[in-house]
Amino acid sequence: MKVTAVRATPVYVPMRHPLRWSLGVEAGLTRVIVEVMTDEGLVGLGESNGGGELAAAVDDVAPLVVGVDPLEAMRVAKRFGLYRSTSEQVGRSGLYKLAGAALEMACWDLAGKRLGKRCGDLWGGIDHEEVDVAAYVFYRYESPERAGDFSRPGFVAEYALELVERFGFRDVKLKNGVLDPDQEIDTLRRIRAGAGGRVRNLRLDPNQAWSVATSLRVLRQLADLDLEFCEDPTWGIEGMSQVRAGVSTPLATNMCCIAFEQLPATIRQRAVDVVLGDMHFWGGPTALIHLAKVCETFALDLSLHSDRELGISTAAILHFAAATPMVSHAIDSHLPEQSDDIVTEPFVVRDGRLAVPAGPGLGVAVDRDQLARYHALYQARGSGDEFCDPIRPGWRPSLPLW
Ligand code: MG
């Protein structure tokens, strides 16, 4: 089997409500859906995070994949290993890495389809058919379907408990760095008090919005809540290291360490306890398999980051999580906040878990009408800018915010 052609389609899918994060508002998700064609008629599916620029990058790097036998999917990962953070590649390494992640994912999908094996079984062997997912709770703005002050601590705490009731989540993550830290402490305490024994773990994610001093103050005040971890309270490996030295709360990251070249300093400076691997930032399935071994070697925990994936990437993440014992915390997913999908059988959280698809390869198929619909939406409106806040036009993000 040989790859003959590649097609990249950017899509935009709105969120059910505009979600606030420390540096702006997430109103939707922009993804590139990659289809890899072969001489045997099989088509492999991949997905990555980006829009038209990423689709163009996929076209640029297609020659690295055309002619490859998808049964040799790691050959694709090896070819894309060239793209690192160097002066010569500063303008393209990020995009090419994201493109490589989608193309490698599609080759694994093809290999699985050809062999009649599920991707997770090619990546170490699926150990369990369901993967724990954490509730993802946001401060929000009004949406057409629901009015109200969604950024009030009391409302957000009630909404968190609503998600726990409706979807059976056992773990709750608050996306914060949005309100004054004292209001966010109030939010967390309300969630903890309301949840009782129904919630196993609480975690928070200010996305680097706090200074080192604010991080130390807030995390010390929250010490009695015994947080599972705090993601990226402050910016950079050095800042994270200073915070970690002063608190008992474990720290996690999907921001200060997103590439192998950042691991040595992260580990030497004891900046984090948990690496939140991202199927796309790190470069694809092979990179995550290698990351899991590094985490095991250096006694770091591993879990998986969500960047608002659609069904193809969600499938890849589930296969990896189900096959990797090092994934020891509930993974993140924005699915309950996303309005729609481009796969024929969208994923649904049940009893706090997502099921690993049963079919060969990634086990998902594209709904062509949905793909066309959300490609048209992308063409009509573009990606949007999550680093601004339409409700506060004069506001601009900066670090630290608090
Ligand atoms: Mg994060």
SS field, number of helical segments = 12
CATH class call of the largest domain: Alpha Beta
Total strands: the figure is: 12
Report the major sheet: 7 strands, parallel
Q: Note the overall shape.
A: globular
How would you briefly describe this protein structure?
By secondary structure, the chain is α/β, with parallel strands linked by helices. It has helices spanning 52-61, 73-80, 93-115, 119-122, 153-167, 181-195, 212-221, 236-246, 263-268, 285-297, 311-323, 368-381; strands spanning 3-21, 24-38, 43-49, 130-132, 135-138, 171-175, 201-205, 229-231, 251-253, 274-277, 301-304, 353-355. The protein is built from twelve helices and twelve strands.
Fold and architecture overview:
The chain is α/β, with parallel strands linked by helices. The protein has two domains: about 5-115 and about 365-380, Enolase-like, N-terminal domain (Enolase-like, domain 1, 2-Layer Sandwich); about 120-355, Enolase-like C-terminal domain (TIM Barrel). The protein is about 35% helix and about 20% strand. The chain is built from twelve helices and twelve strands. It has helices at about 50-60, 75-80, 95-115, 120, 155-165, 180-195, 210-220, 235-245, 265-270, 285-295, 310-325, 370-380; strands at about 5-20, 25-40, 45-50, 130, 135-140, 170-175, 200-205, 230, 250-255, 275, 300-305, 355. The strands form three sheets. The protein has a seven-stranded parallel β-sheet, with helices on one face. Strands 1-2-3 form a three-stranded antiparallel β-sheet. A two-stranded antiparallel sheet has the order 4-12. Helix 8 links the parallel strand 8 and strand 9. Helix 2 (about 75-80) runs antiparallel to helix 3. The longest helix has 23 residues, at about 95-115. The protein is globular, with a radius of gyration of 20 Å. The N and C termini lie far apart (about 55 Å). The model has no long low-confidence stretch (mean pLDDT about 95). Bound molecules: magnesium ion. The site of magnesium ion has 5 residues, from loops.
